[in-house]
Amino acid sequence: MGVSRRKVYVETYGCQMNVSDSELMLGILSKEGYTAVEAPDEADVILINTCAVREHAEQRIIGRLGDLYQFKQRNPRLILGVCGCMAQHIGEQIIARAPYVDLVMGPDVYRQLPEAIERIETDELYVSLSLDKTEHYDGVVPVRQEGVRAWLTIMRGCDKFCTFCIVPYVRGRERSLPMEEVLRQVHRVVDQGYQEVILLGQTVNSYRDGDRDFGDLLQAVAEVAGIRRIRFTSPHPSDFAPSILDVIASNDKICKQIHLPLQSGSTSVLKAMRRSYTAEEFAALIEQIRTRIPQIALGTDIIVGFSGETEQDFLATCQMMEDIRFDTAFMFKYSPRKGTIADRKLADDVPEDEKTRRLQTIIDIQQQITRESNQAMIGHTVEVLVEGESRRDPEKMFGKTDDFRTTILPGGNHRIGDLVQVKIVDSTGHTLLGETSHARSNCGDCPMP
Ligand code: 5AD
Ligand code: SF4
Predict the structure, then answer these.
(1) What is the pTM of this model?
(2) Structure confidence at residue 123 (pLDDT)
(3) 178, 232: one domain
């Protein structure tokens, strides 16, 4: 291979698991002498790390492939690869629709990347889509791309087979990284200067290493010196042992924020989704979480228009959102995914315009609740981990609170990575605006002389 083909551009779609996988891909390639570049026109190798979870994501990526083709027209030696969940899901179709693609690779075979790139020199196309239930990518040192927080995949795959979901098919069976390896990686993250670690897994709280569970892991990670904040995403409601809540409640380093996907507020829809809990059980879990950790911020995922969802089912979801008052929510219209149980056995029978109406209705409900939840923060002093300059105003900085609310604060002398006490003075829907104690020092109520 020519020495010149050493610049790789990775573009990531989808969830944080993909962000973490892209960092692993770069880790594997950088060991072979590749460097990451920031733009496709600087690259010899372009890899797009794709998402298959919803139809919309797949359509966007097909469109993007068309855009990237122009770089290949200008430079015929450029290698264009499609990796990740959508490659695993519809690899054959990608090859048929975009015959200029050189590489198609599923999420369990990234160790083959250097060899694949070599082989493309002589062969026309490299396709590798085997799933490997033993692949953890242990030993790979990720090339991290985000500023203050490090994503760390502690378990891969999923065994739950919710009827709407493609993940078990494209990411294979559930498997956990051994705890010692997780802890080694957390130490590395500290050595690299990160303040915050986010433990990732498709159902992160199903984590197991022998008889040690997710609560034990959280406790062990919290004991690592130097780590300041720990988050995790996404847990499954059915695997939330009370002991996990005890660990979160009793540990200052574990952020008081949980993203807990509800999907639907109707027990019959939950059953059709095979979510393994009823609406009442979910509500009881929320109650238990809020009792044990009163300051917790809660997020969720909701799907509207699933097969068989009646107006009454939909209203039950609206009611549940009003009752629980999640601080944030990601909301989606159901889109059937080829090969899933729902696609094979259930009719996609809610009309598209009705799905759109239902989605807009819950977005409106949630926007109001999120706005009120953020307004309730006004007057409170919170700790913000500074992430960077505000895009709108270079005099200001932005960062996240412990409960993951984006906050704008005066620049002052703060540097990226600082943990700063901020008094919240205003909020604009999704963002908090704060003042630091310096800015407050002449306000009259400051204890400083
Ligand atoms: N249609 C719509 N939304 C989906 N999700 C997963 N599969 C589908 C689908 N087929 C949503 C779920 C999940 C989130 C990551 O994406 O809410 O929690
Ligand atoms: Fe998909 Fe359900 Fe597994 Fe989540 S728990 S990844 S929704 S199958």
Answers:
(1) 0.92
(2) 77
(3) yes
